[in-house]
Amino acid sequence: MRRRDTPGEGGARPSPSTETEVPSFKIWECALCGFRYDEAAGLPEEGLPPGTRWQDVPATWTCPDCGAGKDDFEMREAG
Ligand SMILES: [Zn+2]
């Protein structure tokens, strides 16, 4: 009979400690007009470079299509 009394050796490591370099981007959709803001794509013409997180979008930003505020946007799963 074998006993596992050396958990520190040869064991499978459940989760690598490497940080996620490319966090998943999300898509936010305007509840009023359906306009979508893609974090990965940003909105360069609105002054938001690609990769701009929703949380980094200025609170004063409004939907370019209907003028709705950020509170009117809902998160959509990308993909
Ligand atoms: Zn809108």
UniProtKB/TrEMBL annotation:
Ordered alphabetically, the record's keywords are: Electron transport, Iron, Metal-binding, Transport
| GO MF | electron transfer activity; iron ion binding
The protein's required cofactors: Fe(3+)
Which InterPro entries did the record assign?
Rubredoxin-like_dom (IPR024934), Rubredoxin_dom (IPR024935), Rubredoxin_ET (IPR050526), Rubredoxin_Fe_BS (IPR018527)
Q: Where is this region: Disordered?
A: 1-22
Query: Which residues are in the Rubredoxin-like domain?
Result: 25-76
Q: Fetch the PROSITE patterns from UniProt.
A: RUBREDOXIN, RUBREDOXIN_LIKE
- Where does the signal sequence lie? none
Q: What CDD domains does this protein's entry cite?
A: rubredoxin
Q: Briefly state the protein's biological role.
A: Involved in the hydrocarbon hydroxylating system, which transfers electrons from NADH to rubredoxin reductase and then through rubredoxin to alkane 1 monooxygenase.
Similarity annotation: Belongs to the rubredoxin family.
Question: How is this protein named in the record?
Answer: Rubredoxin
Q: Which organism does this record belong to? A: Caldovatus sediminis
